[in-house]
C-alpha cells in the first residue's frame, strides 16, 4: 500500500473500532436492544477486502458484520441510527445489529443465521454470470460456518458453475465459545475448499496490507473469469463472542498476545513514519462517531402505522 491507501485503510479500521467501542457503551446504557456481536480485533479484514472491491461489487456478511458495511462506505450515522432502532437508520430501524443491508452500496445483507450468506452470494454471482454483468460477489463468514451444510452446497455450486464469487473465511479460532480445532478435522479451513477444487490461500489478517494485496489479486482473477477463490483470514477477536460473554474458554494471556500485534497499532506506527498526522485522523474519526450518536439519539422512532411496510405474503 502507498501512503494514501494505507491512510484510508487505517481510517476505515479506526472508524470500525470506535464505532463498536461506542456500541458497547450504548448497549450498557440500554440504548441498544437485543444482542450485539463486535468484531474488535478483526478490522483489517473489513478494510483490506473492502478496499480491494470495486464499487459495483456485491457483499454478504454475518451478524458480526458492522465493519464490513462500514468498509463499503455506508455513512456511519445511518448505521448508528439503525443500531438505536430509529427511522433514519439504513433499514429504518427494522434490521438492527444483525441485519445491516445497503443494496445501493452492494451490501446484500448481514444474516443472523450461521453460513446463510453463502448461498445468497452464490445466487448473486450466478446472476452476474447469467446476465453477463461485471461484478464479483464477496461473502464473509466465520470458521464455524464451514461446518454448515449451506457452506458445502455453496462451494459446490460455485465450483461447478465457475461463478464470480470470493469466499472469505474469518478464522478467529473460535466458533462462538468453542475452539475451532475441537470441532473440525482439518488444521486450516482453506483445506475444505480443496474438496471442490477451489484455489485457496491463507492470509495473515492482522496485516491490513497483506489482506488488501491478496484480496485484490483474487478479485482480479475472479473478474477475469477464473472462477471462485477461497481466502482464509487468520484473525482474532479481542472481545467476547457477544456482550456479556465471560470468556472462560480462553486465557487473558492469549488475548494479550494478539492485542500486542493489533493491526491498528501497526498501521498507525507505519503512518507516523510516513509523516502522517495520526492524531489528526483520530480526532476526525472521534468527531464523526460523536456526531453519529447525536444524530441517532435525536432521530425519531419508527411510526407504528408503518409497521408492516416492506412485508409481503402469498395466499
UniProtKB/TrEMBL annotation:
Gene Ontology BP annotations: pyruvate decarboxylation to acetyl-CoA
Alphabetized Pfam families for the sequence: E1_dh
SUPFAM superfamilies, A to Z: Thiamin diphosphate-binding fold (THDP-binding)
Co-factor requirement: thiamine diphosphate
Molecular function per GO: pyruvate dehydrogenase (acetyl-transferring) activity
Keywords: Oxidoreductase, Pyruvate, Thiamine pyrophosphate
Superkingdom: Bacteria
Name of this protein: Pyruvate dehydrogenase
Amino acid at each position: 500500500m502507498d501512503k494514501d491507501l494505507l491512510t484510508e485503510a487505517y481510517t476505515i479500521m479506526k472508524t470500525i473500532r470506535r464505532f463498536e467501542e461506542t456500541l458497547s457503551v450504548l448497549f450498557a446504557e440500554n440504548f441498544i436492544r437485543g444482542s450485539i456481536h463486535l468484531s474488535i480485533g478483526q478490522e483489517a479484514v473489513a478494510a483490506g477486502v473492502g478496499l480491494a472491491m470495486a464499487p459495483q461489487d456485491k457483499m454478504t456478511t454475518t451478524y458480526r458484520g458492522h465493519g464490513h458495511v462500514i468498509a463499503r462506505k455506508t455513512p456511519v450515522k445511518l448505521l448508528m441510527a439503525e443500531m438505536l432502532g430509529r427511522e433514519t437508520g439504513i433499514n429504518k430501524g427494522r434490521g438492527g445489529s444483525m441485519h445491516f443491508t445497503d443494496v445501493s452500496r452492494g451490501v446484500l445483507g448481514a444474516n443472523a443465521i450461521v453460513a446463510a450468506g453463502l448461498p445468497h452470494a452464490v445466487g448473486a454471482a450466478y446472476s452476474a454470470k447469467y446476465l453477463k454483468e461485471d461484478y464479483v460477489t464477496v461473502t464473509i463468514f466465520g470458521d464455524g460456518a464451514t461446518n454448515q451444510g449451506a457452506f458445502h452446497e455453496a462451494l459446490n455450486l460455485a465450483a461447478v458453475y465457475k461463478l464470480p464469487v470470493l469466499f472469505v473465511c474469518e478464522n478467529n479460532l473460535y466458533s462462538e465459545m468453542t475452539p475451532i480445532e475441537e470441532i473440525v478435522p482439518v488444521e486450516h479451513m482453506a483445506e475444505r475448499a480443496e474438496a471442490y477444487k477451489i484455489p485457496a490461500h491463507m492470509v495473515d489478517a492482522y496485516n491490513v496490507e497483506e489482506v488488501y494485496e491478496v484480496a485484490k489479486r483474487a478479485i482480479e482473477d475472479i473478474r477475469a473469469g477464473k472462477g471462485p477463490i477461497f481466502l482464509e483470514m487468520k484473525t482474532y477477536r479481542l472481545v467476547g463472542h457477544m456482550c456479556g460473554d465471560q470468556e472462560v474458554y480462553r486465557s487473558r494471556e492469549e488475548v494479550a498476545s494478539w492485542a500486542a500485534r493489533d493491526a491498528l497499532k501497526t498501521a498507525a506506527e507505519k503512518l507516523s513514519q510516513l509523516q502522517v498526522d495520526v492524531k489528526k485522523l483520530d480526532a476526525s474519526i472521534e468527531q464523526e462517531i460523536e456526531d453519529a450518536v447525536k444524530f441517532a439519539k435525536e432521530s425519531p422512532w419508527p411510526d407504528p402505522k408503518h409497521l408492516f411496510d416492506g412485508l409481503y405474503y402469498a395466499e
